[in-house]
Structures are given as C-alpha cells and as structure tokens.
C-alpha cells in the first residue's frame, strides 16, 4: 500500500509534512541518529520522539491509476468504534485470501516500525482491519463463506471504503438466541449480572455443574428468557439453576442484589436501557431487536416524545378551563370567571354553588357533597 507524507497540500498535489520533518531533524539531528543506532541493539526500547501527524494520507491507487486520499480521522473513528465490539471473529482462512490479510496487516505494522508518514495511525489501521475483516456474519456461516467474505472486505479496505465496510459489518449482528427448532443447533448468548437476583416465579430448577448447562437448558426451553444461578456449591459440587419466564427489562423493580446468586440474561440491545421516560424495553431476542413500550403520555421509538394532550385534544378539561401540558400528562384549571376542579367548571355567579360538609365518626371521615 502506498502512503505519503500527509499534512499540507503542495503545488504538485503531493500531501506531506516534509517541512515539519526537516525542522525536527535539523533541531535534533544528533538525538535522531543516536536513536537509529540504539534501535539496532537487542532489547532496547527507544524513547518518545515527535511524530508527524498529517490529516490526510495517500491510501493507495485505484484501478485507473488515480490516488486514493484518506483522512486519518476515518481510521481513528473506526478504532474508537471497534473498541466497543464484543469478540466475535472467525479464524484467518488458509490460502491466498488469508495470506493477503496477513500481508496487509504486516504492511501497516511496517509503516509504524519504519517511521512512515502514516506512522501515527498505522497500528490503529492494523487493528481495525483485523476487527472488520474477520467479523462473523452469522452463527451458521461456514469456512468457505468466511473466505469469500474476507476477500470482498479486503477489496473494500484497499479502496479506502472504510466507513462503508464498517457499516456493513456493524449491520450484521449475530442473533443471540436460537431455540434449535427446525434446522440448526440451539444456542444462546448470555450476559452475567454478578451477585444479582431476578425475584420472579420460576418455571423450573435443577442442580448443574456449570453455568453453560443452565444456559443450554434455557435456550432449549421456549418459555425461558433468563436464569438465576446459585453461587455456593451444594455437597454434590453442583449449583442451583433456576429458569425464568421473563427478563430483567420487564421486571426491573424485582431485580435485586444478592450475595448468593448471579443472574444471566440473553444478550440484547435492551442492555443499554434505550427506552426513556420509564418505558419498558421488550427484547426481540431471535432478531437482536427491541420495541419500547411507552408509559401513558409518551411515544416515539425510544419514548422520547412527550404527547401534548392539550393541542391534540386528548384531555378531559372543561370547555371553560385552561389545559396546561406537563411531562407525560396535563393539568386543568378553570378560567377566572369560573370555579371547579378543571374538569367541571361553573360560573362563579351561578345560583348553584356546591359545598361540602365533613361527617366524622370514631372510625372514619366521610366527605358528602350537599346542596
């Protein structure tokens, strides 16, 4: 892959930091030469030196011979994103495709090791390539599919289509649950919540040797969506596995701390609690999706929109009252010439004026409206 000294654009169209590099060498030429000599010594760790950090680099050439110029921020942003991904990669394939990947990664590492002008993002580029290049497209994909997919991704990488490649890979989430009905093997990806307990009625329990046994039982039980696992082993060396018919997202008020249990929930976008304003996240496990069930007064994909009952005519205020919208609700208040509770307003000059008398006895207090 061909790179350039990025930074400023020169008249001949070549982008670089040559002047900056020349200034650094002129200022500290002795130290720079000393570093080069020392790096030849076995076991020597060089000190920190200033590195040219251009905003753009030459990434390579297209088939028509034109230059591919890439902003270094593309690699930096991609590196920040893959840092949030879970490990989900396939092995490097055999053959030409696997060698091509290794050569490409080696090229980036050499750029860093040889003080190339793209040195400041070379290692990040290597890590990003490995992450996006080897991401599994699905739990049932075979080795041949891996090879074909990697070959396609390497072409996109060399063409500088990093953002497009990142989006395509990110749009291929692994489904966290398969019940094993019909074709396929039952599996589920569970996330542990250490020393926690979901206090709901279970659908069954048993003693198991490890958490994977409990997880597999849950995956093959259609009505199971999470489980509690005991921390302390019984005399048999086993722990208690309790299968549950729901999850923490629908029962957050019953999710408690426990020194004797760990809770396991199926991997879901609901883990990030995306539903706002006390909305409930309804996980669609087999599709790795979710739907927010909003509380009354809110709507939107994440329950982020407050419904204005006053302007939409969804209130119960009297025609002679003001309607004031509030977060998730509204308030009614009678106009100046009227009195009442806002839902029932009568003129202040009306002959009919209700009053309330309070009847007391030893056991209770009762309010009775009278004329």
Q: Which shape, going by the Cα principal axes?
A: flat
Q: Strand arrangement, largest sheet?
A: 7-13-10-11-9
The CATH topology of one domain is given as: Laminin
Q: What proportion of the residues is helical, as a percent range?
A: 25-40%
The CATH level-2 architecture of one domain is identified as Ribbon
Could you tell me the mean pLDDT?
Answer: 79
Main beta sheet strand tally, sense and closure:
5 strands, antiparallel
Tally of DSSP helical segments? 8
Structural class: alpha+beta
Low-confidence stretches: 1-16, 353-371
Radius of gyration: 33 Å
**Percentage beta strand:** 25-35%
Q: Would you count the extended β strands for me?
A: 23
Distance between the termini: 93 Å
The first-level CATH class of one domain is given as Mainly Beta
- The CATH homologous superfamily of one domain is called Laminin
Describe this structure in words.
With 371 residues, the protein is an alpha+beta fold. Among the domains are: 229-266, no CATH class; 268-306, Laminin (Ribbon), CATH 2.10.25; 307-347, Ribbon (Laminin). Helices cover 26% and strands 26% of the residues. It is built from 8 helices and 23 strands. The strands form 10 sheets. Strands 7-13-10-11-9 form a 5-stranded antiparallel β-sheet, with helices on one face. Strands 1-2 form a two-stranded antiparallel sheet. A hairpin with a 5-residue loop joins strand 3 and strand 4. Helix 3 packs across helix 5, helix 4 (96-113) runs antiparallel to helix 5 (119-133) and helix 4 (96-113) packs across helix 6 (143-158). It is flat and about 95 Å long. Mean pLDDT is 79; it is low at 1-16 and 353-371.
